[in-house]
Amino acid sequence: MKRLRIRHETGFQYGGEVTASYNEARMLPVSADGQLVLFSNLEILPISSHHTYVDYWGTRVSSFEILSPHRELTLAATSLVEVRDRPHPDHRLEWTALADEIESATEFVEQLAQRPRTRPPAEVAALAAAIVAKEPSPCAAALAICTAIGELIEYMPGVTGVHTTAAEAWEHKKGVCQDITHLAIGALRSVGIPARYVSGYLHPKPDAEIGEMVKGESHAWVEWFCGAWNGYDPTNLIEIGDRHVTVGRGRDYGDVAPLRGVYAGPYKSKLFVTVEITREA
Fold first, then answer.
1. What CATH topology corresponds to 95-255?
2. CB of 223 closer than 8 Å to CB of 195
3. Model confidence, pTM
4. pLDDT tens, 5-44?
5. What confidence tier does 192 reach under pLDDT thresholds 50, 70, 90?
6. Of all residues in the chain, what percent are helix, strand and coil, respectively (each to 5)?
């Protein structure tokens, strides 16, 4: 078990005066299997009243509006979370049984439909189909598919953006965790395995000392259903463990973006992001 303190600061610097903005933030984790939130707080500047709710996918959302003129919007989310290793059982659900299970709940059906960000190119769908033909169960096939995607895409920031699709990332064979996760999700869905996008944080230093602060960043990984939900980090080719902190889940990045909104003001704006993670136990 690890206890991690996370400070995630983000916002926009505008090219002039903004008269009003309306926003949603998804930056605070929730207590769930494998993690317990001991403290969480979101500070918004300029000061604004906001209300918090849990969205359809189970993610904490802070909704707020700023109606006074401002040139910068800053959000600072601070969380203290106890994280434990997650069990990764092999459910050995056969393909026919999986199809029957999927039809039993909307939760699974909704994570089967492709979306513009996840729709895989024909080459990726063929790769997934070839793996399925060799693997005995959906669980084994899902892990093999995610591993193959992670091995074929080189992690390289700056090549893609938040609007890049899985197909575009595949053309480059380069991208960030968001792109690799979208590709893995699209590949899984193409062979009938429900898959969902998970946003959160990964402590980047496995052997960090207690009290040591390290620079981090928002992270993304995939969960698939094969009798139960299983998680895997295809970017780093590791199982989800006590360095992963979950913030939100959805069909793709669009459901869990840390900050989004609209504003009235100059066209130009600059996004800034910093993440600091400190191991406290």
1. C8orf32 fold (3.10.620)
2. yes
3. 0.95
4. 999 999 999 999 999 999 999 999 999 889 999 999 999 9
5. very high
6. 25, 40, 35
Q: Which of 79, 75, 71, 101 is nearest to 23 (CA)?
A: 75
- 139 to each of 119, 178, 195, 222, 269, how far by Cα in Å? 21, 22, 12, 13, 44
Other Cβ atoms less than 10 A from the Cβ of 268: the count is 9
Taking alpha carbons only, the member of 261, 278, 130, 144 closest to residue 210 is 278
Which residues, 6+ apart, have CB-to-CB distance to 233 below 8 Å?
A: 202, 219, 221, 222, 239, 240, 244
279: phi then psi, degrees, rounded to nearest 5: -80, 125
Q: Region 43-61: what's the mean pLDDT?
A: 93
Confidence of residue 1 (pLDDT cuts 50, 70, 90): confident
The predicted-structure confidence for 105-139, as pLDDT tens digits, reads as follows 899 999 999 999 999 999 999 999 999 999 989 99
Domain with CATH 3.10.620.30 in the chain: 95-255
* Region 2-84+257-279: CATH code: 2.60.40.2250
Polymer length of the chain? 281
Q: Which contiguous run of DSSP H or E holds residue 83?
A: strand 70-83
Q: How many CB atoms lie within 10 A of CB 96?
A: 8
Q: What angle do CA 96, 99, 103 make, to 5 degrees?
A: 145
The two tokens of residue 211 are 């009290």
